[in-house]
TrEMBL record:
Keywords for this protein: Cytoplasm, NADP, Oxidoreductase, Queuosine biosynthesis
Function as written in the Swiss-Prot or TrEMBL entry: Catalyzes the NADPH-dependent reduction of 7-cyano-7-deazaguanine (preQ0) to 7-aminomethyl-7-deazaguanine (preQ1).
Protein name: NADPH-dependent 7-cyano-7-deazaguanine reductase
GO biological process: tRNA queuosine(34) biosynthetic process
Pathway of action: tRNA modification; tRNA-queuosine biosynthesis
SUPFAM superfamilies: Tetrahydrobiopterin biosynthesis enzymes-like
Biased composition (Polar residues): 1-14
Species per Swiss-Prot/TrEMBL record: Kiloniella litopenaei
GO CC entries: cytoplasm
High-level lineage: Bacteria, Pseudomonadati, Pseudomonadota, Alphaproteobacteria, Rhodospirillales
Signal peptide coordinates: none
Subcellular location: Cytoplasm
Reactions the enzyme catalyzes: 7-aminomethyl-7-carbaguanine + 2 NADP(+) = 7-cyano-7-carbaguanine + 2 NADPH + 3 H(+)
Amino acid sequence: MTEESIYSNLTQLGGDSKLPDSPEEAVMERVANPQKGSGYVVRFTAPEFTSLCPITGQPDFAHLMIDYVPGDWLVESKSLKLFLGSFRNHGAFHEDCTVSIGKRIEELLEPKWLRIGGYWYPRGGIPIDVFYQSGPAPEGIWIPDQGVPPYRGRG
């Protein structure tokens, strides 16, 4: 199988892509894991994640940390970026955004393990941090701390 045929199902990589209007419209894509037999962690950091408050329509900001131990699949990073960007005009509470993102990635990839930390900037003077994990961390794989300190200006 050629490299071209392996990636022929990807619709966003290598071309112009419009930011989806909503998370429901966003298409996340996956590619075969070339290190399928190895245990390792993939981390995506989105320090400027944005969504909207569903009540006031005001913007909310978060630092997202997504860690997963892949099985057969990896998320294609451009499609993940577009998916996360689709929340910019989406109204949802912090908890819903964070958990929905984790579950959507979990559904697409069927990873051996996944966690997401949503470290949200204050709303009404209170930062709200939301965490979702698919199950216990697999043994024998180094899973680093997410390294985001409790809120102190989030710098």
